[in-house]
Automatic annotation (TrEMBL), chains A, B:
InterPro entries xref list: Diaminopimelate_DH_Ddh, Meso-DAP_DH_C, NAD(P)-bd_dom_sf
Keywords: Amino-acid biosynthesis, Diaminopimelate biosynthesis, Lysine biosynthesis, NADP, Nucleotide-binding, Oxidoreductase
Protein name as it appears in the record: Meso-diaminopimelate D-dehydrogenase
Binding site for NADP(+): 15-18, 39-41, 74-77, 97-99, 126-130
Species the sequence originates in: Comamonas thiooxydans
Annotated substrate binding sites: 153, 178, 204, 254, 281
Reaction equations catalysed: meso-2,6-diaminopimelate + NADP(+) + H2O = (S)-2-amino-6-oxoheptanedioate + NH4(+) + NADPH + H(+)
Length: 331, 331
């Protein structure tokens, strides 16, 4: 775990919000070097944050094997990562942010097979949920086995729910915020281990721009009654102008809490809380990916091949500092 | 990381508040078995929580080698652990809660030498600070390199400061609570990265029982002006009766916050907060020790000998669940 003298060479695969976040994050880590961005688009059309960052076509990626220590995959969990991660893990060490919780075991198996075959190290599902929140769920349970874990999300912009709103007839645009119910959070914090329904944990707040001539009440009803997305929640719908949407709702804040509440004896309750308040969800996720890229590089150097998750990574591996320095300064 | 079928056999060395907490914690972990308590006192005089727990003299510990997978050292950091941990690490896997931050590198070196020599695995400085707070300092820095870390303690009973009060002439008894200054915590949470003096971060609150005929004002002055312990803080002293002290101040609550605040870009601040609210400081520390005993057992089984810290332990190693189960249920 000693600090290496030559920088860790990373590359970005896919350049959306997450890719831009990774470019910004690598610049804040002096032990890392960004070798380039690989895109399916025309490389000449892509505008990296730093004009000096090399941009390549995905087609040449395989020929750059040996020039990159770790790939950071910045595609989507629906279509990109399930295909890309197993393909690339046969040739490169990599990290991804695969976040379809239900399909993680399947994704793990596919990536593991490829990485084992190629003697590479791949870490899937890094980010904050899955990711840092998952770590806190595991630690909470391990430290307080007689207890209950609660995850709250928000206040934050939910991409999936915003997309659902925008598909409603009569809607020109809109965003959805997920908001933890304060009463529920405080009850959990008090250590009483309440049973909470979906409705009791989160509220949903929509800001919607109507198309010309659309029926506001019909739109509102369609949204709040939408099965799975909204019907199990208390949802409020605010109608706003296109200007207000652009001015007040283009940031991507998010965050939330993981709270473990448990008893170490009949008399004594203990509460552990992990909280994130994020101005930018994609930039934070990117920062997590970059720190895990460092860990992946070290695991690969130690010959620990195959697929890993955040559960397999010791905290010290994420830091650029040496083990000695960490013990002396931060323990 | 698969769940083992035979229980992990642990033993407690030293039976004070921490030892009692470990006895309670092991009972909440079905994959562990408490083989016994080892004490320097007369074993027949010791009253374990569970009357069936075997109690032995320290003198026989070495002859029980092979019957115990991991020792949990529950002595003090001042006199017991610096001597015991290196001695025992030559023969047993073990975990301790050594918490003299400044002497950790020295303690690590001594324990590492012994553990390497004996092919044993020893983990030092487990607990919450050092321990869980340390992990969050490392993770915070790794995820948000452009940022600042703040540790606040309390509201909680400080053993060291309570002892200092009790040494003052005219004092028959007393306790000291460390209290984070709410204003400072809120400023840090807002993401502005303030520079905070010692006085601005914590207050100290003392509850003191006077000896007959003692001069209250002289006692108060001696306490609030005590170098290092109190002079750098705003300290309030309340005089109470011996009955009030026993009735209202015999619990050992503690806790605190580690907050990392940083920027991922010029526009976007991100705040990570880890918070503990503990009804019982020793019982929580004990629960952490027990979870790390599980990890130590697994590291030893994997042939990873020598001295370790919480920075070297992957989260999954702390859980009784298999890696498959963790990925499916908690990622």
């Amino acid at each position: 775990m000693a600090s290496t003298s030559s920088p860790i060479r990373v590359a970005i695969v896919g350049y959306g919000n997450l890719g831009r976040g990774v470019e910004a994050a690598v610049a804040k880590n002096p032990d890392m070097q960004l070798k380039g961005i690989y895109t399916r688009r025309d490389p000449s059309q892509l505008q990296p944050l730093n004009a000096d960052t090399p941009v390549h076509s995905m087609d040449v990626l395989l020929s750059h094997k040996g020039q990159v220590d770790v790939l950071i995959l910045c595609g989507g969990s629906k279509d990109d990562l399930p295909r890309q991660a197993p393909e690339l893990a046969a040739h490169f060490n990599l990290v991804d942010s695969f976040d379809t919780h239900a399909r993680i075991p399947e994704h793990f198996a596919n990536v593991d097979k490829a990485a084992q075959g190629g003697q590479c190290t791949a870490l899937i599902s890094a980010g904050w949920d899955p990711g840092m929140f998952s770590i806190n769920r595991v630690l909470g349970e391990a430290l307080l086995p007689d207890g209950a874990t609660y995850t709250f999300w928000g206040k934050g912009l939910s991409q999936g729910h915003s997309d659902a709103i925008r598909r409603v007839e009569g809607v020109a645009g809109g965003v959805q915020y997920t908001i933890p119910v304060e009463e529920a959070v405080n009850k959990v914090r008090s250590g009483v281990r309440p049973e909470l329904s979906t409705r009791e944990k989160h509220q949903r707040e929509c800001h919607v721009v109507l198309k010309d001539g659309a029926d506001a009440e019909a739109v509102r009803k369609t949204i709040v009654e939408m099965p799975h997305y909204f019907d199990q929640y208390d949802t409020t719908v605010h109608f706003i102008s296109a200007e207000e949407l652009a001015r007040d709702h283009s940031a991507m804040p998010h965050g939330g809490f993981v709270i473990r509440s448990g008893n170490t004896s009949a008399e004594n309750k203990q509460v552990i809380e992990y909280r994130l308040q994020l101005d930018s969800n994609p930039e934070f996720t990117s920062s997590v990916l970059v720190a895990y890229a460092r860990a992946v590089h070290r695991l690969a150097q130690a010959g620990q091949h195959g697929c890993k998750t955040v559960f397999d990574v010791a905290p010290g591996l994420l830091s650029p500092k040496s083990a000695e320095q960490l013990r002396a300064e931060l323990l």
